[in-house]
Amino acid sequence: MANGTGNGIHPDEETRNQEIVASLRGFLKHQTERVSLYKEFNDAFKEYVAKRMTPEEYATICNIVTQGFVELSIEILALEAHLGGPEHSINASGTSTETSASDLTSPTSTITNGENTRGRLSLNSPEHAQLIRHVQVLEKQKLALTVQGQKLALEKEAQEAQDLKDQEAELQADRIVGATDMESDVQGNEMNGIESEGQEINAESTQAQSQLNGSVRLSEEEWQVKLYENRDRLNEVVEEINDKLADIQEAIAVLVL
Predict the structure, then answer these.
(1) Where are the domains of the chain?
(2) Residue 175 burial (C-beta neighbours within 10 Å; 0-12, 13-18, 19+)
(3) Which pTM value belongs to this model?
(4) What is the rounded CA–CA span in Å between residue 38 and residue 173?
(5) pLDDT, tens digit, 9 for 90 and up, residues 106-116
(6) 78, 88, 69, 36: which is closest to 140 by C-alpha?
(7) DSSP H helical ranges for 50-99
(8) Is residue 37 a contact partner of residue 71, using CB atoms and an 8 Å limit?
(9) For residues 126, 131, 134 and 140, what is the CA-based torsion angle, rounded to 10 degrees?
(10) Separation between Cα atoms, residue 204 and residue 190, nearest integer Å
């Protein structure tokens, strides 16, 4: 049974606990969906790097995954606000905001959530809302680190490709110079032109090298350090997320006793 007050609907303890459990379980369901989206995102990147997917196909999947993340975030923000009580709400853009209690005095108040609306109960359980908030913050870090790792991998691949081109250009220049040395007796007048061509090749190679990704070229060891640091930090964040999810499972277990 729910009791009405000037601050909205306040359910009895049993109903309140059931609502909290339902919200936390709903969040865990969304978290499972988010893990699936991450897998799709990572798998697409691997296919793209392996040249088994075109840039257009990869961009399409990235857009689909991004939209999926946005929709999940809106759903999760609604659950977080539902748990947090009448001082929390979701605005039209899906952002969690603070509102006055007077905004939620009607028993029919709802949270707009995309195409969905959720009946408003003042659960007043900020400690459970905070459990979700912790995961959300960590998930944001996880996504940023994932994108950073992919960017590093692409930059490393681009530098390696440029290094290969530079080596081929140097070999070509050496062949030209070697050929002109052998024929210098009969082609003395052409020597300057050929040397100039070799110099132009080297100049273009040097310019491409300096402009690669607009950044300083790194050694293989330096790339590995950057990639390992990114991977290690990402693993740490994933472990923290798993710890917070375990806290949510424990909170559910306590409430259903």
Answers:
(1) 1-124, 134-243
(2) exposed
(3) 0.68
(4) 47
(5) 333 333 333 34
(6) 69
(7) 55-84
(8) no
(9) -110
(10) 22
